[in-house]
Amino acid sequence: xxxxxxxxxxxxxxxxxxxxxxxxxxxxxxxxxxxxxxxxxxxxxxxxxxxxxxxxxxxxxxxxxxxxxxxxxxxxxxxxxxxxxxxxxxxxxxxxxxxxxxxxxxxxxxxxxxxxxxxxxxxxxxxxxxxxxxxxxxxxxxxxxxxxxxxxxxxxxxxxxxxxxxxxxxxxxxxxxxxxxxxxxxxxxxxxxxxxxxxxxxxxxxxxxxxxxxxxxxxxxxxxxxxxxxxxxxxxxxxxxxxxxxxxxxxxxxxxxxxxxxxxxxxxxxxxxxxxxxxxxxxxxxxxxxxxxxxxxxxxxxxxxxxxxxxxxxxxxxxxxxxxxxxxxxxxxxxxxxxxxxxxxxxxxxxxxxxxxxxxxxxxxxxxxxxxxxxxxxxxxxxxxxxxxxxxxxxxxxxxxxxxxxxxxxxxxxxxxxxxxxxxxxxxxxxxxxxxxxxxxxxxxxxxxxxxxxxxxxxxxxxxxx
Length: 466
Ligand code: ARG
What we know:
There is one protein chain. The protein has helices spanning 22-28, 31-34, 38-54, 60-78, 91-103, 116-152, 172-197, 216-222, 232-237, 240-267, 294-317, 332-352, 360-369, 374-383, 388-405, 414-418, 428-432, 434-440, 449-464, and strands spanning 157-162, 165-171, 274-275, 357-358. By secondary structure, the chain is mostly helical. The protein has 3 domains: 19-112, Fumarase C, Chain B, domain 1 (Orthogonal Bundle); 117-362, Up-down Bundle (Fumarase C, Chain A, domain 2), CATH 1.20.200; 369-464, Fumarase/aspartase (C-terminal domain) (Ribonucleotide Reductase Protein R1, domain 1). The strands form 2 sheets. The chain has a two-stranded antiparallel ribbon. Helix 10 (240-267) runs antiparallel to helix 11 and helix 11 packs antiparallel against helix 12 (332-352). The radius of gyration is 31 Å and the shape is elongated. It is an enzyme of class 4 (lyase).
């Protein structure tokens, strides 16, 4: 990156009487970070050049020179040979200046009928569309990972929790399929967000449109956009799509942080429900016995920065008058960091989840200890004709007795149970077992292993359609 003391304003120096201050040049430049969109900038410029030629603003020769020059520039950038200059402010002017260096005056014609304002809006949309497509694949991979673990664990019994207190037995597969549902909504939200990304602002020029006979439908089609935007002022100032994306990313990170929290707890010695393979953990520099669940912890922590970016972008756009303002240059770093954070976090979870091993004996034991079939006993009493509220009371007393004597409901004798309700018969033990309890919740969305397997089949056929 070159950074001289006096800069030359070579792209817009016409009306200036002194060069811009060197610090101001650095302060206002965005090339350090927006060079990430170089590929999309070139893609957009090639489409713009083709369109200009098709409406007669450029000759076919000029068009071909531009395409040739830009293609070479893309190569230079890919090979790491492109000399980015802070004096040229941003990715757009760096590439344009290099084009002019290579092909001469024709390079200076590329910017006909456009402005950096509609150019940058186009580049961000192209960039984000590419990233969203990749993220959709990562979410799919994550969902496949969840499914493969859920399939193994469809019959594994664990305590289900409310308030982190043992509530009712569930299957581990059912718990995992809850994660799957969250990921499914994330996928759908991202698909929905993509629709509003995929609209072409190019043609809005600086803010009011252009006097050239441009064909925006053609440019939209060349770039794979659904259609051109319908208002030039809105086109150059709209960043809703970036906010929506970051909001979708925030919800995804919120989900990952919840799974992370569960993994961290379950991997602890106190729960000991799961084993996280060593490759997803690290040790302690002082305590030799430690194996820390760093990956889920870090993802949980990274959620905060994505929320921060959402708030940053909302605040960036707050009270901004139409149309483009330089403020908007501040959209990129939060957006890029959101993309990077989300990619890393999804990748880590998609790799890690299918590698989780359950400690099913510990899960089973925890479910057995926590009076988790108390509701089943109450439901049993209801089937014997007791009103639910009264049944609740009876079972509450039985649990109180269990707490005092250290016995789970299934460990009490029939005689003991009958002291709480004479209608209790020998068949009560069918409902007091953990297996009976989960198997009985056999309806759409229930925890019965049969239902979990059905949910997995449904999910698999959904994924096969993607
Ligand atoms: N680097 C600028 C940005 O990211 C490009 C648009 C500049 N437009 C302008 N009128 N200064 O927003």
